[in-house]
Write a structure and sequence with these properties.
CATH topology of the largest domain: Tachylectin-2, Chain A
Number of strands: 33
Strand content: over 45%
Radius of gyration: 22 Å
Largest sheet: 10 strands, antiparallel
Shape: globular
Distance between the termini: 45 Å
Structural class: mainly beta
Number of domains: 2
CATH architecture of the largest domain: 5 Propeller
Oligomer: single chain
CATH superfamily of the largest domain: Glycosyl hydrolase domain, family 43
Number of helices: 1
Bound molecules: beta-D-fructofuranose
Low-confidence stretches: none
Amino acid sequence: MDFKHVKENEEKSVLEKKEKVDQDFWRQKYHLQGIVGLINDPNGFSQFKGKYHLFYQWNPLKTDHTAKYWGHSVSDDLLHWERKSTALRPDTWYSKNGVYSGSGIVINEKLYLFYTGNVKDEEGNRSSYQCFAISEDGENFERLEPSIVNQPDGYTRHIRDPKIWEKDGKYYAVIGIQSEKLEGKAVLYSSENVKDWKYLGEIAGGNKEPLGNFGYMWECPDYFQLKDEKTGKVVDILAACPQGLEPQGDLYNNKYQSGYFFGKLDYEKPDFEITSEFTELDRGHDFYAPQTMEDDEGRRIIVGWMGVPEEEDYPTVKNEWLHCLTLPRELKVIDGVLYQLPIDEMKSIRGEKTEFNGTVNGETEAGKGTVYEMIAEFSDFSDDFGLKLRTGKNSETVIKFDYKEKKLILDRSRGEQPDKKPRKVYLGEIEKLDLRIFVDNSSVEVFVNGGKEVFSSRIFPQKNADGIKVFSEGNVSIKIEKWEWRD
Ligand code: FRU
């Protein structure tokens, strides 16, 4: 097979489209985005020779999912990303229909990428290969022949997205898979030498205790441990993206879900003993396929795709680009609860500061801005209140606390995005509400009460929609600090 055209087509497409992309006022400032085309899952998130490496699923040719490369960016601080040459292309027999998602690990001063090669034959039958690529310089990757060919008995060829880690000198990988009964599952493999892999078994999934039906496929699983900062107890977390869950009230309202279970991984059985409900990691419209890594400082950092599959009708498509990644967030467990916090580095890009303080009853202007960080603290309330951001002609993103229902609501119905339904999360009885919000040219990320909940949503306001308003049905005390984004 001759794959010369793969790189050529990519370079041609970038040249053709870049100017149009660069002129789009919806291009992001805080977020990692593709140079042109569509991006989806973060991949190979790692730290190698002191630098952060973040790869991502990338279609440089079109704003759809028909081709998948691994784009690559590098950073010293997780904020400023430098684009590197494309790490992996669909230019091998075992990845010709897509270099699908996977993870990264540093072994003996080399960066290993472990990913899924996707192959479809003329009849559309799929084969999946789990493969390695290795780099000594963090830029050029040598590709190895597949390490795991297809699936274990009892499963379909939907097996993908290996997440690798090391424990006591052995390597393990959790991989998303579909059973022949069309149930989504996570399976565990191990290896002594990274080359030869042994199938250990299914650790969690639909119709495996304690779960009932739980979707027809699990994508992008992740496994890690965190030390509870209050109790000191080490907790195990299994994250996964089940496809096929039905909406249940405020839950599961996106096309596909991304969430986690607390539990305990038993490597011997093997089994992930689930001890919690499945909890969605994010309450917004655009969050999927996250990946975590532990950095040199011992922080567990998560980055998600700020998008979901099968939603390609966003208005940036006309400008030849689609989707971006979320901000990196630090994960913490405090007293049995998982929190997601903006990384400390975010404070280093705080520009000009403005404040708004007072008691509000009705609606008031509280500043202006298009790309900024805001901390808003609300207290002494007994009715509905909230914020309106990026307000202007036909534009407005509303974050409202529904006092009776005790729910926080994100409403992006006034803008150019297709899905106009709000997203909600129940907060319970609260006397104060703290929001830390990052507003970008085409997104909002809202960290609620110290990161106990997060909403990530793309928004598509008019260019000059820079209004900030506060509103309340009754009295509410408000304290707002806001910093312009600074490069
Ligand atoms: C999740 C996903 C993965 C797959 C990749 C392909 O969004 O479908 O399961 O590896 O995207 O781009």
